[in-house]
Amino acid sequence: MEYLIKNTDLFDGYQIIPDTDVLVSNNLVTKIEKDIKLTDEVVIDGTGLILSPGFVDIHTHTDVSLVFDDNSNLLSQGVTTVVGGNCGISGGFNNDPVVDGVINFGHWDIPKWQSLHEYWDWIQSQPLPVNYASLIGYHTLIEESQKTGKSATSLLQDYLSQGYFGLSTGMVYGWGKKIQETKDILELAQVLSSNKSLLTSHVKNQSSGLFDAVKLLTDLWDNPNTSNLHIQISHLKHMFADDPKGHETLKKVFDLVEDSLAKNHSMAVDVYPYTAGSTSLDLPGRQKQCLNGWFDVFPFGYSDSIGTISQKTGKSEDEVVQEILRKNSSLLAVYQNTCREEDVWEIVAKSYAVIASDGLPTHPRNWGTFPKVIKYAQDNNLDLVQYLSKMTSIPSKIFGLTGHGEIKVGLSANLVLFDPKTIQDNATYEIPNLPSAGIQKVWVDGNLAFDESRKVLGKFGKVVKKSTSL
Ligand SMILES: [Zn+2]
Asked: Which of 124, 139, 219, 381 is most buried by a 10 A CB count?
């Protein structure tokens, strides 16, 4: 099928080319010029609309949901490429509560993989709604190392050569909790550096200890054989409630990142545009990092917060939590009032920050992240090119997702057509699963995957592997 998008404002990943035509045929962008005249193709009027590269969401937990879930949350935001395996957790084992809690949140009947390798083979055989790349989760890797007796460094090298993009750590989950010092991950970081790969990290502390938690990573560069390592701080946020130093902590983190960049190290952060976090309900100490303790914490599947349940039942908030955890020990929850709005947007504005959803079904970020940032940029008269780059060409370049996040003749057509006047996130904390407005059409690999019918029209995605020819 051929598509001709006429008279559109084309954002090609780097600049806006006003009022031009774009031809898509045989899965590729085949022409970009004014007044393309052809007769057989489907013509789409792009007047007043922006045609952009499909958004590249580098921080997701979609490793299982891509196969089992509807995934309209991704396509309805204009996302065409996702990176999974984040926060230390990638596909590889089932019956592991750490893994299941984060990637099998739908309790789907997943295959009984016993290694990352088995997962990797499986996902490549599945039809996917969007393109999928993956990191190796530190927890999953160490679990495999423990079970097989193979060293984590040799397993890592093996998996990197199979097309994984790097290693993710989640220093509050599973084996990740055992990382206490820089030296605990140095050998793995050296393997990553020699493969020009990334280390992404859900850092150990996102509150008063945020600076030290980030420094644990940047100190890696003080060691030999680390110069080609890229460090990516996942979902950078500052939970201010139990931090007496307040904004100063976040400012110190910005300085640390900027110092590292000034020394020519490769570093970036990703961020989602919401003040609430979402993670397991049993994460120790987390309630202290919320302004109102347990009060504003919403467990997945419950319409009331812990505070409201406590008031309704007369039980203490702690009792309510324990009761819920007895039924489901890996339950997700949304922690409201953890970050300050102005801090979130300050992070978003940084030149080294890219937009990523960290989507989980309990949280509106799963449905609204990208349209919310575009609307924010529009409402505040910010440079749209800069903000769109944060969700297309920049994340793609960080990960080396060649051919994604940009529109050029000859590249696979992963595209989103949206109305800059009406684009808006609709998902809220009360109703987190509402599609955004303004996304008109989405193409995955040249196929129309989403349109005004608001339905997923087909599975046209592919597994994207890191090229090993460095
Ligand atoms: Zn995380």
From this structure: 139
